[in-house]
Design a protein that fits this description.
208 residues; Nucleotidyltransferase, domain 5; five-stranded mixed beta sheet; 6 helices
Length: 208
């Protein structure tokens, strides 16, 4: 089974193609504001490197959030176009799950994304990758109260988050992510939507 993985939920593009427990090609690059222009050509280059075409893909796994509102939409759009036009099964995972799975720690795992104004996107998973605190948009003070209940844990993050010293820098293990979710149930491409875990600023302003 050949699986395409796409994550554009940050300023980075994380993508790869795996076949039968082998990672054929991957890309891990930061593009910042040019991500929308570079993501598709970089994904196409994966097919070139592996002598495959999109038609050769058996499944797509795409990260649908949380993270950058714009970035999430880029990856989802690319994945949905491939899935719908070529009738390829597609499934979604969260960026926090990808972060959790990529860690090699044997402690409790706390993936974290800076959401500004002392808010973060975060979740807590035990040593067996089971959910202790579900993924959510949460005040850092409230999250810290949850962390105080834990004996030993590791923060997994790409952001600085200077108040935490027990932090592991996030480096996605794309093959591990693919293998963990390869059998997750596929959904209709039209049902693949961003899961921001919070309102956009425009939506929040309408409520104020």
């Amino acid at each position: 089974m050949r699986i395409l993985y796409i994550d554009t939920s940050s300023s980075y593009l994380y993508a790869g193609i795996a076949e039968d427990n082998n990672l054929l090609a991957e890309v891990k690059k930061e593009f910042g504001t040019s991500l929308s222009e570079e993501a598709l050509p970089e994904i196409v280059s994966l097919f070139t490197k592996t002598n495959l075409t999109a038609k050769d893909i058996d499944k797509i796994i795409v990260v649908n959030g949380p993270g950058s509102f714009t970035g999430i939409r880029i990856g989802i759009t690319i994945a949905k176009v491939y899935a719908w036009s070529l009738n390829i099964p597609i499934t979604t995972i969260t960026s926090l799950e990808a972060m959790m799975l990529s860690s090699n720690t044997n402690k409790i795992k706390v993936p974290m994304i800076d959401a500004r104004r002392r808010y973060v996107f975060s979740a807590i998973y035990n040593e067996n990758n089971q959910v202790i605190l579900k993924p959510q948009h949460i005040k850092m003070d409230d999250l810290n109260k949850e962390l105080e209940k834990l004996s030993d844990y590791t923060i997994i993050a790409k952001d600085e988050l200077e108040e935490y010293d027990n932090k592991e820098d996030y480096n996605p293990d794309i093959l591990r992510i693919i293998n963990y979710f390869k059998d997750k149930e596929a959904i209709n491409p039209h049902g693949v939507n961003p899961d921001y875990l919070k309102l956009t600023e425009a939506e929040e302003s309408k409520l104020n």
